[in-house]
Amino acid sequence: MTPTLAIALTAIFTAISCAVLGAFLVLRKMTMVGDAISHAVLPGIAIAYLLSQSRASLPMFLGAALVGVFATVVIEILSKKWKVQSDASIGMTFTTLFALGVVLITFWSDKVDLDQECVLYGEIAFVPFNTWSLAGQSMGPIALWSSGILLLIVLIYTFTGYKGLLMSSFNEDYAAVLGIGVGAWNLSLMSMVSVATVISFESVGAILVVALLVAPAATAYLISQKLKPMILLAALFGLSGSLLGYLISARFDTSIAGGIATMLGVQFALILAITQFTRTS
Length: 281
Prior knowledge:
globular, ABC transporter involved in vitamin B12 uptake, BtuC, mainly alpha, two-stranded antiparallel ribbon, 281 residues, single chain
């Protein structure tokens, strides 16, 4: 597999996964959860490194994932149980955990050979160089496999839990009357977003993960407020934005993540302009 194809497929798999989950976040007005989680996992990474004394992917992922899920539980408790505004609960959770991570890294600076910048910001251009082998046979880039597995998990989760996600996203009170466990569905969605964010940001970068969670779904929401079309449109916008951004970055030799995020923003601006024009005409 060529490096170009590996990068493109990783971007596409990640984009569709994040776009599908982002559709539910947009409906729930919690689009910045991905940004919160991508920063909140820093103490988990620092503790995992201190305990394992290794930068291997598995301990780092487990540490980040555990703290990411913990952050989603805290956000859920603050917003649902203690009635703190959702944006305030997100902001307080991620700033506190991120600051704790910085403190831990600084405090353990003689034992933890990590930097918060390198932890949080991956580079999709390096995807082809981080490969894994099985029985002496190269199996290709780790990020390509992880993003492909992530996409499969997200699609299975969305398909099997569609009814619960639909009802809990549009009308929580009505869903509760029908006997749907709203809290459980909210927590499962936040946990899935946490896992998707942790898996994605190491390879494609935290900024691009946030853009993929927000921009495609927000663009789709401008066209349709029905969930199924919105999910499909979000996946389509994520796919097209990733391909166009990658092609443009390759053509002008610029940042791939920056090119993709820029194209996602351009798509949103174009659709917004078209919808506003059609409404006024």
